[in-house]
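User: Please predict structures.

Assistant: First:
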Amino acid sequence: MMKQRIVFSLLMSFVLSSLMTLWITWINLGLQPNFIWLWAKAFILAWPAAASISFIFAPKVHKLTEKIVCTWLDKSL
């Protein structure tokens, strides 16, 4: 289970960091000649933070999600 949690955190944070830094770099700077370098720099800084945050908070968010969904399902029945 721990291996799955680590792999999930790495993969999910990779995808989110890639897309979010790409989007925000483009929004803030536009397509500059050095866009790829600027995006890569933002990504390199963001991914370790995102991976750590994902690993630490994913179990808590998962439990909160279960509570919210269970409450919502109980009220809709």
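Second:
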Amino acid sequence: MSFVDATYQPHTPECPGEVRVERDLLGEKAVPASAAYGIHTARALENFPLSGRHLHPELTRALLMVKRSCARANMETGHLPPHVGEAVLAACDEALDGLLPDAGITDALQGGAGTSANMNVNEVLANRAEEILGGRPGEYARAHPIHHVNLHQSTNDVFPTAIKVAGITLLRRLEKSLAALQTAFQDKEREFAGVVKMGRTQLQDACPITLGAGFSAYAEAVSRDRWRVFKCEERLRVVNLGGTAVGTGITAPREYIFLVVEKLREDTGLGLSRAENLVDATQNADCFVEVSGILKAVAVNLFKISSDLRLLASGPRAGLGEIALPEVQAGSSIMPGKVNPVICEAVGQAALRVMALDGLVASAAMSGQLELNAFLPLLADALLESLSLLGAACELFRTRCVEGIMADAAACEEHVHRSWATVVALVPAIGYEAAVEVARQVRETGITVPQAVLEQGLLTAPELRRLLSAEAMTVLGQGR
């Protein structure tokens, strides 16, 4: 029985037709003659049919960028023949343009600390470079996956560097999505500034507040998330590229080690720097845990806000019904006329997923042993999925929900008038004991607080309107 998604169709080395034979440490293996990949990829496709997902697209792009930068550094230092280097660079550019789809086809989850992913990219680039130089895939006489494309590299410095490049790219996208969501909440804050509603603590009537003030709190929470996401990019800028296998730079020339991160910085446009302690940067993954923790904070806020909006829109006739969410689809297969808060629910589910993935990131990071972490593929898959999910959730939330929210001012006003908790706003003017009597009368008779106050002659109608106005509800502190 297979547990792989039936829609997932990985490239298989056992396809009928013409084949070529390649060799590695374990012996010979047939590979489809026209395949852009080679024997290491073919073995990986057989060995790891696990998740049903390929590498995250941004991780594949990042691996290609790393290979491009390494080729440039090797060319500049004289270790890669110019004609071979130019062919590898051309192959990288084609792959980055989406013209070599076999790059990144290994399963997202794999043993070997990412070696299969690294070799998949090496083979695809080498085979294309071989073609550019006049050869055929699998010959590796002109361009070789290890001798040329992987020159002066190890999976152990390439793969974690690529995770960081992909992570920064997705962090920047997320920051923009959060900025747009913050603006949407600020727009609603201004739009709803004059709508007085009941505040609620522990789901019980509390003090009056404006609907705009409630949305200002959402905007502030998203603003903090935006700042956290912006700042945590710093945690990913320090890379171990050049450290090769265990961080000592073994087999790599000194001049290459000092140059390669500079080339990667140029190619990506990111503020990357070489780790001062390459051994530490090769074996420890705590920086990813820190970033994932920030993503969990974003998820927590998104869940809380989306849950609040569902509650405020509940009903709409038999619930709070103080706001109306955009109606995006029919809500029931059996109840006519029902429309559900599906966007809020989807955002909440994405948030829960990110919180769960944070646990995977932490577990994978602590599973490193001695000089390397073999669980980096799992860590990369979880972290990059979280980043993608949050970015998509923010965009969905903003465009399909927040921007279209409408206030039901009449429902808000009715709740204010029906609740005896409104009397708390009058305590400074009439005193606590008088306020208790007003609350008792409202509870026993069902009349409104304003009616009770006027009946008891505690305040005039203009005084009452002023104390219960939107302005009075939101001013900081009690005015004179």
